[in-house]
Amino acid sequence: EIVNYEFDTKDLVCLALSSVVGVWYLLRKHWIANNLFGLAFSLNGVELLHLNNVSTGCILLGGLFIYDVFWVFGTNVMVTVAKSFEAPIKLVFPQDLLEKGLDADNFAMLGLGDIVIPGIFIALLLRFDISLKKNTHTYFYTSFVAYIFGLGLTIFIMHIFKHAQPALLYLVPACIGFPLLVALAKGEVTEMFSYESSAEILPHTPRLTHFPTVSGSPASLADSMQQKLSCPRRRRQQSPSAM
Question: Which residues contact 45 (CB under 8 A, 6 or more apart)?
Fold first, then answer.
């Protein structure tokens, strides 16, 4: 079976609602439909991507920190693309919502990368919390609050200086610094940086736990493959299982 899809009522209802939002976005390009798509993409990105250790996360966030600062302050490419490219690659927040209501047209923007990249680091800290087996999510809650603080600081600075701000300039120090301070206070810095999540089987993530051993010469392996292909497949008889 190459393709085997199973649908239930919930899937069909979600498909119908998603189709309505998709048609709404294609026809109107409304900011609410854009944000719904952006949130869906961000949630899928955080779910599908994951980091294996804190060191890798710090290097990734540090590199994107420099990248974001350069392309926002050094050039106007990032701001120009974000304003001109109409696609759900960003979340928009209407600044004239109280004046124009749902027809607002003056927006502040937040790129999906500013959500997904810190999000996968916060998810890594949640797995680290679980690995400690203390029934607490201290590092997850700390990094979550740090993200909210960094985002709020970004909006505050943007309103003060009336200029586009690279969100990672404030999010990266907050998301790394706050959990690190907690780890220093609890004496768990070594455990944090030595933690490896690649050895764990994450929920909804199938992994190959063992590899088949192959022995013999290439000629013998080719002959065995030809014999398997030439033998007709027999349908396995299923015996009724006892309930």
Answer: 112, 115, 116, 119, 120
Q: H or E element: which one contains 169?
A: helix 168-186
Helix (H, G, I), strand (E, B) or coil at 19: helix
Neighbours of 5 (CB within 10 A): 5
Q: Is 68 a catalytic residue?
A: yes
Contacting residues for 114 by C-beta, under 8 A, at least 6 apart: 68, 167, 168, 171
Among candidate residues 8, 103, 114, 223, the one labeled active-site is: 114
Question: Do the beta carbons of residue 54 and residue 194 sit within 8 Å?
Answer: no
Q: For residue range 63-105, what is the model confidence (pLDDT) as tens digits? A: 999 999 998 888 888 878 877 777 888 898 888 788 888 888 7
Beta-bridge partner residues of 109 = 92
Q: Is 114 a catalytic residue?
A: yes
What pLDDT is recorded for position 240? 40
DSSP string, 105-124: --EEEEETHHHHHHHHHHHH
Average pLDDT over residues 190-210: 64
pTM of the model: 0.75
What is the Cα gyration radius of the chain?
Answer: 25
The tokens describing 195, both together, are 């933690």
Q: Which of 8, 11, 68, 103 is labelled catalytic?
A: 68
